[in-house]
Every structure is written in C-alpha cells, then in structure tokens.
Amino acid sequence: MTRRPAPAALLPSILLAALALPAGAAEPRRLAMPDMPLHDPYIVADKASGTYYLYTSNVPLVSGECGIGIMAYTSRDLKSWMPPKVVFRLPEGSWANGGAWAPEVHAWRGKYYLFTTLHNEAATIATPSASGWPAYRRGTVMAAADRPEGPFTVANGGEPMAPADRMTLDGTLYVDRAGKPSYVYAHEWIQAGDGTIEALPLTQDLKPAGPPKLLFKASGAPWSNGQRPVAPDGTPAKTNVYVTDGPQLYPSKDGSLLMLWSSYDRNGYVQSVARSASGELAGPWEQLEPIVRRDSGHGMLFDTFDGKRMLVVHRPFKNARGKLYEVRDAGGRLEILNQRVDLDGDHVMAPSPPERDHCKPTQ
After folding, report:
1. Does pTM top 0.85 for this prediction?
2. Domain 7-20+30-344, what fold?
3. Alpha-carbon distance 320 to 309, whole Å?
4. Rounded to the nearest 5°, which phi and psi values hold at 269?
5. Which of 83, 106, 228, 260 has a CA between 20 and 30 Å from the CA of residue 196?
C-alpha cells in the first residue's frame, strides 16, 4: 500500500528520450499519452481556447524545471500533447516540503482554483493514529489564477483547507444545486485507520464555513480489502487499514449524486463509484461496484469538445500513465463504453536521454 512514489526515480530512459528535441527541430516534440508520466491525472477542457489541460505533479526531468509543484500538458485533440509547463510551485517558507499530489483545477466566480496535496513528514501530529504509525502534516492547499495555465498563487496563507490536525489529501470542490460550494476530501488511513471521505462547507469565497462532516468510510464498500502494511522502518500497522483516494462529484441525470473514488479490492487498486440517491452531498451514500480495475484509479470525468463524456485514470499505480475511457451516464451509475486506445497515438522515440537530472548536483 505504498503511497505515490517519487516519479522522477521511475522514468525509463526511453521515456526521457521521447522528450528530447531532434536536431533542427523548431518546436518541442509532441507526446502521446503513453509517453507522459503522470499520477492522479486531472483534465480541464477549456472551451474558450479549445485546449485540454492535463495537470499532474511536476517531474523535473520532464518539465525541465526544478522543484515541487504542478505541471500541465496541453492538447487540442487528446491525442497529441505538448510537453508540460510548470503552473504552480511550492512557495518559499511553506509549512510543507513535499507532495504536490492530486492537482485539480476548478473555475469559480471568474477565477481558476488549483487544489493540491502537500505534506511534511517531520511535522508530526500529536493526535494518536489508528495505524500505529506517526501521523504528520498532510493536507490540500488552494491556489488561484486568472487562467487555466496559471501561474497559480497560494490562497489562505498556504494553509490546508481542512483542519491542520487532520492528515488529509485529494481535496475537490463541489457546488450543489443551490450554488453552495463544499470542499470534499479523504481523511488519510495512516491517521484514521479506516479511511474516510469527508465534506467541509465553504463560503462563496471558498473559506471554511463549518466543521467537517463524515460522508462514508472505506470499509463500507463490500468489495474493499483491508490490509496491514509495513512502514519503511519495518513497523506493521496495528490493524487492517482501508484506503480512500481521489473523490470527485458528478450529478447524474436521474437526480442522484455520484462520487468517483479509489481504494483496493483483493486484486489491487480500483476505480469505484458511490451514489447518494437523495442527490445531496449529505447522502446517505451507497457503494457501487468498481468500474475499472486492473491496478487503475484516481479518475475524473470531463466532457470533450464534441460532447463525449470521458474518464481519465492512471494505470499502473507505479510508473503511472493516463488511460482514457468513454463513459455513459446510465442514470444513477456510470457505464464504461470503451477504452479509447485510439487516443494513445503514435510515438517516435529520440535516440538518447539526458545524461543526468539537472536538478541534482553533480557528485
């Protein structure tokens, strides 16, 4: 149950070669999705510019820019992608020193808001953890920009949206039928043991407006598989733990409210869906069967410029790539129509990768 590995350490040399410029090239080599290292993908279809933005954690060997942050690939057709540019950087003096996971970008009241999860393993939390492992500061921060390409600047002093004494991640924005925004996130299994999905009411300025409310626990899914992971120092968890990852809300055509979220079944990481038949964020929530398995998950829905509804997930969990599926709203559930392998494109690899990571000093 390893959490997101450092992506730069996992890049195969053939991938790095794909990003190199051939001699005499006038512009960067375009990429196909199998070329692109990404975890927790999030796609914004910006109709104003006719551009798809795919956000993921910064990989310096790919973006060419050092540091912790978020980068974005861009495309006009979901098949041919431009190399990524960094749109958010961890500001100096931040409480965090790692992460930049699970980026999401939402348009709200004339601006674009980036949500991303940061952490600091040295900043421990005094609250006892159910897993028996030390809990430390982890939380989703918000940053704002005038355009989807950024640059994004942290809001709320760079502090997490959820209470700082909770180890949280993968925050998303949801606006209900009455126009009231809420912040929905996962309470990390390291601290909670049985990971949860919780919701925090927000003001129109996207500031907390009340205490968090529990929506459901990971163990409530009949297919969920509890595990007893072992920490890097060899310490096993005190009890079976259950993972909650990547919530995203979607109002279904039958009036119910669906939530994408990910966890583990007996065979690995899965993309699943929960349903609130009332159509309200408060639920009650019913757990449906996973819609994509095969070590896949942390997905999100978006609509293409030609009106197709798409799901993007990462697979596999380590050394992840994006996978696209066309889906249908079947009324209270999502139906996978097909995997869009036609969008994987053609990739011609350049002959040689960079010799070293320019962000690391020479020995």
Report:
1. yes
2. Tachylectin-2; Chain A (2.115.10)
3. 22
4. -70, 140
5. 106
